[in-house]
Structure formats: C-alpha cells, structure tokens
Amino acid sequence: MPEVNTDNLDEQQVQLLAEMCILIDENDNKIGADTKKNCHLNENIDKGLLHRAFSVFLFNTEDKLLLQQRSDAKITFPDCFTNTCCSHPLSTPLELEENNAQGVRQAAQRRLKAELGIPLEQVTPEEIFYLTRIHYKARSDGIWGEHEIDYILFVQKNVTLTPDPNEIKSYCYVTQEELKQLMEKASKNEIKITPWFKLIAETFLFKWWDNLHNLNSFVDHEKIHRM
C-alpha cells in the first residue's frame, strides 16, 4: 500500500484513519477489511478498492432535514455541506451483521452520537429505516477520495444535538425549498456540497422526501444504484 505523509493533517482525524473498514465487491459481498486510510487513498481506489458505507438523512417532526457542514479538520471533503451523517460500519462482529442491515444501522447509531452528540437512546437501530444502496466514486483532492456502496438510511425524530467541532463546523434544519437554494449556491461555487449528497439530492431525495410518511413503496434492498 502507498505511504502518505499525514503530518500536516488533524491529529484526531488521523487517529480515525486506523479504523478497519469493510472491503466489498461490486455486489456488496464482504471480501476483507482494510484501514480507513487505505480505503480513501485514490491510488487504491483507482485499483478498485471498495468499502461499505452509509448516509443518514434525519428529519424532525416538521419534515425538515438536518444538514451538517463538515469541519475544516476532515481529511476528505472538508468544509462541505452534506446530509445528516455519513460514515462507515467497521469490521467488527456487531457492525458486520448483514441481516436486515443490522450492522450498518448499529454503525449509524454510533456515528450519530460521535458526530452530532445524539444520545444513543434517542435513535435506536430499530428506528433507522434502510431504504436502498448506491455505488459511487469521487475524488476529494489528488491524494484522498471515496469509493463506496452507501446504505441510505432515514430517521424521523426530534433529537438533542451536541456536535463535535472536530467533525462538524455548522448544522441546520432545512425545508425542501431551502435545500434547493443551497444547491443553487453550490452550483455557483458560493458553498461546497459533498459529491454523494449532490448525487442523491439530484436523483432520489426529493421524491423520498415527498413520501416521508410512506417510504415502504421505495424500499429496494436488491438493486444497487450505480451513480
């Protein structure tokens, strides 16, 4: 694996690069494990390295979507606006459990607490709704990037937020109209949004949002949407 100098990166974020992500094939079958660092190096991504991930979309009871702006300390896509929480299940027995995406939902609960400070009891794995999966690839810069099969997870709850400033620069709840305005700003390069959030927002998100109280008809656990 290539050696990359991380001396100029945030110490807390560099520590997280040692976490073990789940390596998968293009059909989301587990084929091994590797560090978060190796999974996010473009040099490895260009050779086909692919890992499992998730994206949480949390709505309050007013049907507003919680967005976060990633901190400047983040190694990939710093300062970008994105959906509520985006991360990876780890290669541990609890988060490898594939039945009903239990492992991914456990991981989502863990990261909602780590990033946003949402108490574990406020969002249980059972309250996290697994919708479908997308497969995408994106470069953050010359060194770092993403190549993931991303589980799309929806939650609707009012929650208590205590964000970690090392993870999150700002956050806000938005209506559909406010998100469209945000995306318009991003198209003019006035702000930045993450590539996966842009892809999901431009294809599926508003249709799902319109049917927030009737999502069962949109569940597809068979197909992996190639973006």
Question: Could you explain how this protein is built, in words?
Answer:
With 227 residues, the protein is an alpha+beta fold. The chain has 7 helices and 10 strands. Strand 1 (20-24) and strand 2 form a beta hairpin. The chain is globular and about 45 Å long. The mean pLDDT is 94.
Helix content: 25-40%
Number of helices: 7
Secondary-structure-based class equals alpha+beta
Over the alpha carbons, how many angstroms does the gyration radius reach?
Answer: 17 Å
Strand order of the largest sheet: 6-3-8-7-10
Overall spatial form: globular
The quaternary structure here is single chain
Give a count of the beta strands, DSSP E runs of length 2 or more: 10
Question: Topology of this structure?
Answer:
Layout: H1 11-16, E1 20-24, E2 30-35, H2 36-39, H3 42-45, E3 51-59, E4 65-70, E5 81-82, E6 85-87, H4 93-96, H5 102-116, E7 129-139, E8 145-156, E9 168-174, H6 176-187, H7 195-210, E10 224-226
Parallel strand pairs: 3-8, 7-10
Antiparallel strand pairs: 1-2, 3-6, 4-5, 4-9, 7-8
Defining traits:
227 residues, 10 strands, five-stranded mixed sheet, 27% helix, alpha+beta, three-stranded antiparallel sheet, 7 helices
Concise overview:
This protein has helices spanning 11-16, 36-39, 42-45, 93-96, 102-116, 176-187, 195-210, and strands spanning 20-24, 30-35, 51-59, 65-70, 81-82, 85-87, 129-139, 145-156, 168-174, 224-226. The chain is α+β, with helices and mostly antiparallel strands.
